[in-house]
Amino acid sequence: MKLAIAQLNPTIGDLSGNAQQILEAANLAANQGVRLLLTPEISLCGYPPRDLLLNPALVEAMATTLQQLAKQLPPSLAVLVGTVTPNPKAHIAGGKPLFNSIALVEQGVVQQIFHKRLLPTYDVFDDNRYFEPGLQANSFTLDGVRIGVTICEDLWNDEEFWGKRNYAVNPIADLAHEGVDIIVNLSGSPYSAGKQQLRESMLRHGAVRYQQPIVYANQVGGNDDLLFDGNSVAFNRTGEIVCHARAFETDLVVLEFDEQERDLLPTTIAPAPTSLDEEIWSALVLGVRDYTRKCRFSKVVIGLSGGIDSALVAAIASVALGRENVLGVLMPSPYSSDHSVKDALALAANLGIKTHTLPIGELMQGYDRTLESLFAGTEFGIAEENIQSRIRGNLLMAIANKFGYLLLSTGNKSEMAVGYCTLYGDMNGGLAVIADVPKTRVYSLCKWLNTSGVGKIHPNQQQEIIPSNILTKPPSAELKPGQVDQDSLPSYDVLDDILDRLLHKHQTPAQIIEAGHDPSIVNKVLRLVAGAEFKRRQAPPGLKVTDRAFGTGWRMPIASRPLAVSSEQSETTKSLPQTVA
């Protein structure tokens, strides 16, 4: 029996468009003799639909669209379609209104409905807000083959693999005990760097432990801040990969189940990214392309400072959208160095994008005159520095509004963590492309782009993409003479290690210090991270590429005080400057 995985890129809420994707994949599969087609979690609506699910009209429209799709699908094909169905017992105290469901469609009708059993509520997931958990193992028989059906999180609760259970039941174990022949999993599993290795280890463990072939069908594409990498994969009962779909692209992969051997046969294995930098690059390109397309933009505008962050964002955008759809704007001030302008122009030439230069010196003088009497008797400081950033932000927003462009924000994760960014200035934008990329990774990505990734920009280009001076000069906001980032922050190697331990490894201040960091620096970083929460709350959505991003899964209070290493050291933090706006 032939099975196929339709690795789809849905637009959330576009029921007709998503149904058309399923139909096209079904027709292709039927032409190849496929008997069963798998689609991702909630493929009919796109995952995650979030509070769109609170609209009863959408749920009704999904049911109608599913019935219409069923009549259009090839009669020779059975299709598992991800959808949402009402909970008839929602009136019972505590009952949720919906199920996260899979519909088995065959011969023009919905034959069976299966419900997701494990509902995650961690990180970016909030399934329990909308869904009632399914209470029974899900399986069906097709041409004598018994197929167990699971949905995303249903896979992620093997106590032998994780060392514990997060839920009372293990749907994979239940299906194995029922004696199914194949386990399929229909997923909407968001991307984070290195996550595919974890998925494959978990799937391999499950296949070997239960002696069951497992087919994993994942969504691909960008939906707001969440990226989905696809990477659909199948394992035979001995834990060997027998097929692998492409990463970060739509795909249709066909595999065959040998009914005598009761196992999957080897088939196509797509090449995977060869490094973490290539993987993250591919994710960011996909995120910019999909966010722009799904929000109905065709062109973007970027402030080019001559620094490494805007250089990386411009490179990503030029690949995601085409160089003809990217405008770089240079806005030099009297404090801008000559090399910053030269570096920005050299970058634009390498990328082949258009530029426009808008000097802001006269605008700065106008602000100075307007504020002269009010600021009289005070020293030049952060307020005046930030005026420059806000002038630039206003100019970029004016361009975006005038021509209907999407403004891409260029701040990195290290800056967003400690508030080294200006509200209504460099934080302006509709999408923060590298807001989950630490500064040290920004450098790594740019170095990769200049070597292994050169062909990603233009297929025949051999020269470096990021000018070498951008990579070697000290990073600076250039808001006052001789300024460099390390006037205000620890070196980025130190800062990023502290942030990694704090945000990703959830280490205590004492543990971070035990790792070799200066207590005063640790306390400073803790305070800066807490003090910048009000900025992050007002930032544009940022593409999530790590397991802990300042986005959907980040739920921190604004009015709070950070933990200090000790009461004595806590006193020292009182003298630290407030996080600047």
Descriptive account of the structure:
With 581 residues, the chain is α/β, with parallel strands linked by helices. Helices cover 36% and strands 17% of the residues. It is built from 18 helices and 20 strands. The chain has helices spanning 15-31, 56-72, 159-162, 171-178, 195-210, 276-294, 308-321, 338-351, 361-371, 382-403, 413-418, 439-450, 468-472, 492-504, 509-514, 519-531, 533-537, 567-573; strands at 2-7, 36-38, 78-86, 98-106, 109-115, 139-142, 145-151, 182-187, 214-218, 220-223, 226-229, 233-235, 241-244, 251-258, 263-264, 300-303, 326-330, 354-357, 406-409, 431-432. The protein has a seven-stranded mixed sheet with strand order 5-4-3-2-1-14-15. Helix 1 packs parallel to helix 2 and helix 16 packs across helix 18. The chain is elongated, with a radius of gyration of 26 Å. The termini are far apart. Residues 567-580 have low confidence and may be disordered.
